[in-house]
Write a structure and sequence with these properties.
- The complex is a heterodimer.
- Chain A is mainly beta.
- Chain A has one domain (about 5-75): 2-Layer Sandwich (Folate-binding fold), CATH 3.30.2270.
- Chain A is built from one helix and six strands; from the N terminus they run βββαβββ.
- Chain A has one helix spanning about 35-40, and strands at about 5, 10-15, 15-20, 50-55, 65-70, 75.
- Chain B is α/β, with parallel strands linked by helices.
- Chain B folds into two domains: about 35-85 and about 195-275 and about 370-435, 3-Layer(bba) Sandwich (FAD/NAD(P)-binding domain), CATH 3.50.50.60; about 130-185 and about 280-365, D-Amino Acid Oxidase, Chain A, domain 2.
- Chain B is globular and about 65 Å long.
Chain lengths: ~90, ~450
């Protein structure tokens, strides 16, 4: 079972969360070209290593949060934003 | 075995009972099925990935187009990825007209494969049943049946009493937690021995002169003249570039055409050429039980319960599920999968509650946003893709190989794979197959 470290609720089973996928910077809709916009919509980095991703704490605090997880080992690490404590280790 | 003197037959020799007796009496060993030759410095075509897709592409390049200076590279052994991990189900009852035409061609190639490759691939045309537990699922079944019928595919919606006749072990009563309201029945669907398909293509390709290189890992793809990749703007990769070869752990190879036929690692290989793909990698877990007497004559799939079941010729029940809920390259099994799977299977077949699971495993699936693959040319000249096969790659193996071979040989995108081009994500012409492909099979 994967333990996802929610910043508010601490480590909880992955089944308590909804997976939001890779975190990408949203382009400005007024300035982005159609190509940039579709690239934002569809293209993925999909690395075998550290990935910045979004989770939604569905059955806990109901907040969206961003963490980094290693997609090869499923290990989480502290998010670079100061003060964002992850709770436990997965 | 040559049929005409001096002319090599296009098929590899046939295995026969007489051969078995002669070899047994003389105590001879069987010869190697494909050659183990040193890596050359240059090839006309390099195919990355020695699974069904890569080997089929190599075989059809040689058989249909006479291009035999081809190397198939695999970082492990042939068929070590998705080709040996899938649940070996084939069918063509898809949802979009593009998908139906494509998979139907694949099914017809599977039908004649044993004769074409002179190897028994144990194709069992046992029928394929997709159960509906809700009104909306039944609506999608009717939709699929109508799309299928228009393209002359044997596919129809049947009611619970007919489901019971086809598979008596299913609980079709109205007391079930998720009662069976009907099913989409597809008689031409069935199962096939996936390892034999891999070996058959490898043997056929080898016979025609193609080289298979196992334990040969691609470390980099050599590209010149491109506008730069995402990580380095001056590395010459990316759009506008031209492939010159690949770098492997056994040295550099020069080749004007490189085909990416990998699953799981498809984005990592494409990144080496500077091509971004709309793919996220997720594992799909499957499991197999101890063998019992034959009681399940068809393949049974339930989209709502996220499970599909078939019985092998040895009598084991093979279960598959949907992909895991988050991206990962890890293929470790999880207890929650086993629990959920067992619960859902017993929901369908309460009679098998005493059966024991033998083992479970996982394979990597490359999921695209529209549940259709990415095939054909990329912005890098000479770099072709046959990737993004999600949970439906095995059943498409033969037709993908045939079409990719045509694509390489003619340098034109064949009509059958035109809808699956990479540029559809720029033009917005997606091929939505989620309704027919979301739960694998």
């Amino acid at each position: 079972m994967l333990l996802v470290p929610c910043p508010n609720c601490g480590p909880r089973n992955a089944s308590d969360f909804a997976y939001g996928g890779e975190s990408h910077v949203r382009p400005n809709p007024n300035q982005a070209t159609p190509e940039e916009w579709r690239s934002y919509l569809y293209m993925e980095d999909n690395p075998a290593g550290w990935l910045k991703e979004t989770w939604y704490c569905r059955s806990g605090c109901r907040r969206f949060f961003t963490v980094e997880r290693n997609t090869a080992t499923n290990e989480f690490r502290e998010h670079p934003i100061p003060g964002t404590k992850l709770g436990g280790k997965a | 075995m040559s049929l005409l003197p001096g002319k090599k037959s296009s098929k590899p020799p046939r295995y026969s009972a007489a051969g078995l007796i002669v070899k047994g009496a003389r105590k001879q060993n069987w010869p190697r099925v494909w050659r183990d030759v040193p890596l050359k410095k240059s090839y006309d075509v390099v195919i990355i990935g020695g699974g069904v897709h890569g080997l089929a592409t190599a075989y059809y390049l040689a058989a249909n187009h006479g291009i035999t200076n081809v190397a198939v590279l695999d970082k492990a052994y042939l068929g070590s990825g998705g080709s040996g991990r899938n649940t070996a189900i084939v069918r063509s009852n898809y949802l979009t007209p593009e998908g139906v035409a494509f998979y139907d061609r694949s099914l017809s190639l599977y039908n004649t494969m044993a004769a074409d490759l002179n190897l028994n691939v144990m194709f069992s045309e046992r029928g394929h049943m997709t159960l509906a537990h809700t009104d909306s699922a039944l609506r999608t079944m009717n939709w699929r049946a109508e799309v299928n019928k228009l393209q002359d595919i044997d596919s129809s919606v049947i009611d619970p009493s007919e489901v019971k006749k086809l598979a008596p072990s299913l609980d079709t009563s109205s007391n079930a937690r998720y009662p069976i309201l009907g099913a989409l029945y597809h008689p031409p669907g069935g199962t096939i021995r996936h390892d034999a398909v891999v070996w058959g293509y490898a043997r056929g390709a080898d016979h025609l002169g193609v080289e298979m290189h196992q334990k040969t890992e691609v470390l980099d793809i050599l590209v010149e003249g491109g506008e730069g990749s995402a990580t380095d703007a001056h590395d010459g990769k990316g759009a506008g570039g031209k492939v010159t070869g690949v770098r492997t752990n056994k040295g550099d190879i020069s080749a004007p055409i490189v085909v990416n036929c990998t699953a799981g690692w498809a984005t990592l290989i494409s990144d080496m050429a500077g091509v971004k793909l709309p793919i996220s990698t997720r594992p799909l877990q499957a499991a197999v039980t101890e063998p019992v007497k034959v009681f399940l004559p068809t393949v049974v799939v339930s989209g709502s319960l996220h499970v599909y079941v078939s019985q092998t010729d040895r009598g084991e029940l093979v279960f598959g599920a949907s992909v895991d809920p988050f991206n990962t390259y890890s293929v470790r099994g999880s207890l929650e999968f086993t629990e959920e799977l067992a619960g859902h299977v017993l929901e369908l077949m309460p009679g098998i509650s005493k059966m024991r699971l033998l083992r479970q495993w996982a394979g990597l699936c490359d999921m695209t946003p529209d549940y259709s693959p990415v095939m054909g040319f990329t912005p890098v000249d000479g770099f072709l893709c046959d990737v993004g096969w999600g949970t439906y790659g095995f059943k498409a193996g033969p037709v993908s190989g045939e079409q990719m071979a045509e694509c390489v040989a003619t340098q034109m995108t064949p009509k059958l794979i035109e809808p699956f081009r990479l540029s559809r994500f720029s033009t917005g012409a997606l091929v939505g197959e989620k309704g027919a492909a979301a739960v694998g099979h």
